Each structure stands twice: as C-alpha cells, then as structure tokens.
Amino acid sequence: MKIDGRHYRTIFPDKDGAAVEVIDQTRLPFAFELQRLATMDDAARAIRTMVVRGAPLIGVTAAYGLALAMREDASSENIERAVAALAATRPTAINLRWALDRAAALLRAAPEQDREVLAYAEAARIADEDVASCRSIGEHGARLLSAIADRKDGPVNVLTHCNAGWLATVDWGTALAPIYVAHDAGVPVHVWVDETRPRNQGAALTAFELNAHGVPHTVIADNAGGHLMQHAQVDICIVGSDRTTASGDVCNKIGTYLKALAAHDNRVPFYAALPFSTIDWTLNDGVAEIPIEERDGREVSHMTGRTDEGGFATVQVVSPGSPVANPAFDVTPARLVTGIITERGIAEPSTDGLLSLYPERKQAA
C-alpha cells in the first residue's frame, strides 16, 4: 500500500540484501519510521515489543529472523537455537510457528554452506505468498460487500476490530483487504473502527491505514459496536484472526468475542478473514486449547499519546495500586461466525467447511 504516494511493504530487504527493514508500528500514527533488523535478536525483539505485529507479519519476520541467524552461524545447533528464541516471542499467533517450522525443515535438510541463501529465499517466498493470499482474500470478501451494496441505499457499513490491514501482513491485509478491493472498485464503503483497547490498534493503525487510502471511516469506543448494531448501522462485521482451529473457532484480539455476541443477537453477519497459515489443523476446541498471551498490565494502566502542544506523554489512567489483568486475545466459537474468508474462497466455520477449501488436509490427516 502507499504512504505519501510511495508503495511500501511492512517488511523488505535492506539495500545490502542482508538486513531487513520494517515499519515501526509503535511510532504510528504520529510518526512514520523504519527500523533496520540486522540480527536474529533484532527480529525477536521487534516481534516481542510489537514493532511488528499481526499474525501473518510476525510469521514473515520470524522467517527473516531465521535467515539472519544463518548469516551469522549456519550450524544445525544454531537453527535450533534461533527457532526456539523466535518461537518464544509471542505464543498465540500460529503463523509464527508455521513459518519457523516451514523454513527450519528446509534448512535442516540442506548442506550447511547452502543454508544462508536458502533461508533468505524462503523468507522472501513466504512474504510473496502472503501478499498474494491477502489480495485473494480481498477479492473474495469484496463480493460480500458488493452484494450488500446492491440491495441498499447508502454506503456499506463495516465494523472491524483491532488492525487486520496491510500493517498486520506484508501488504493488503486480511479483514481490511475486502474493504480496499471494494473501495477501489467504486463500492461505497464506510468503516466503523473499534479503538481496540488497550493498545488502540484500531484508533492508531486501522484509522491510519484507512485515512491514507481515502476510505471513509469513523473511530468508535470499543463498547459502542453493540449500540450501532441495535440501530441497524452495521451491515457486516469483518475481523482478522491470530489462530483459527480446524473446527472454525476464531482467536483474535481481545474484545472480538463480545462483538460476535452482539452481531449474533442483532442478526449481523460476522466474518473472519485469514490466510491458510492462520489455520491450526491440530486444534478443535479454541477456548480450551489456544494459548492466550497475557501482556504487561502497564498497557492497561497507562496510555501514551500526543499532547496538544505536539509532544508525547504517558499518563496513568487506572487507580494507583489496583491490580491489572491484560489477556491479549479471546476466542469466538464457530457457532457465532457466519463464514471464514480465505485466499481460496469463503468457508462455513466448521471442519467440513474448511476441508472443502483445503481437501489436502483431509488426506494429510
């Protein structure tokens, strides 16, 4: 996508071809800055501190992190050290482990002298596949928005949660990709952007993206979505996912489950958009089996923003001394999901539904 008229991916090789550069998402929306990742430790830190975030993007970053590790030491022992270090950065998104397993399997089977070149090539391949998948997700999802537009006056009102746009992937995004494709095709679209506490990825990142692309949108408090649905101001909900089970349970940013409950109560269709790498075929019960990351309580108790004078300040917003819990994700059961938008089409949220798009998984099982 474009920033100030220039096309960017969220991660790309540096001029020297060895290091990679990423957009520092902790600085958005007030400053657009790049960070250079020159070592595996740099990549691990970028994932852990959410300089990069979003399930597909952290998977690609991990693949490049493994390549950076091979540049320093291509031994079999270092493959295992790097995989363990990168896998430990964030536990919930399955794309991270998927990308590492894929790249590491290739490297383990290769001669040590070939591993560095293979690792960089595989990371680039994973990145390119992500772009193609997200573009295809956009095309399939845009048909839903076009169908709604054909039967109503005024714009299609989409509610989304967190940031599942191009900043969460390499390009295009997952939940926002259908919006971009539809908007570019002339479909009138308006997006309700949940602020998404505590890190405010909706207010900061999704709004930043939509603003840059010229998509009409309105930022709302997280608790406003149900009210809007009750008053027929939401036509469809589309969210992303950090891990989706083989049975169609969807794990996404904390607060997604509440939106799904409100959508179900108001008969608003609720879709999750995700690539094949987000499906965890080993799990069936998302609530019981998906590990939920618990992040630092300071993300809840404190907020950082820009002052009226143009500076930045961090302020405490929780009563001093009160304990804080900060689960980063929740799970929406498949029964509350209307459909899952993938690069291969739209599936029913069930094992049979997903296998209809990925029949090779049935053979693998």
UniProtKB/TrEMBL annotation:
NCBIfam families: eIF-2B_rel (TIGR00524), PRK05720.1 (NF004326), salvage_mtnA (TIGR00512)
Pathway: Amino-acid biosynthesis; L-methionine biosynthesis via salvage pathway; L-methionine from S-methyl-5-thio-alpha-D-ribose 1-phosphate: step 1/6
Matching PANTHER family: METHYLTHIORIBOSE-1-PHOSPHATE ISOMERASE
Cleaved signal peptide residues: none
Protein name as annotated: Methylthioribose-1-phosphate isomerase
Keywords, alphabetical: Amino-acid biosynthesis, Isomerase, Methionine biosynthesis
A Pfam family assignment: IF-2B
Binding site for substrate: 53-55, 90, 201, 252-253
A GO MF label: S-methyl-5-thioribose-1-phosphate isomerase activity
Catalytic activity line of the entry: 5-(methylsulfanyl)-alpha-D-ribose 1-phosphate = 5-(methylsulfanyl)-D-ribulose 1-phosphate; 5-deoxy-alpha-D-ribose 1-phosphate = 5-deoxy-D-ribulose 1-phosphate
Sites annotated Transition state stabilizer: 162
Species whose genome carries this gene: Methylobacterium gnaphalii
Any one GO biological process: L-methionine salvage from methylthioadenosine
Gene name in the database record: mtnA
Superkingdom in the source lineage: Bacteria
Record family assignment: Belongs to the EIF-2B alpha/beta/delta subunits family. MtnA subfamily.
Protein EC: 5.3.1.23
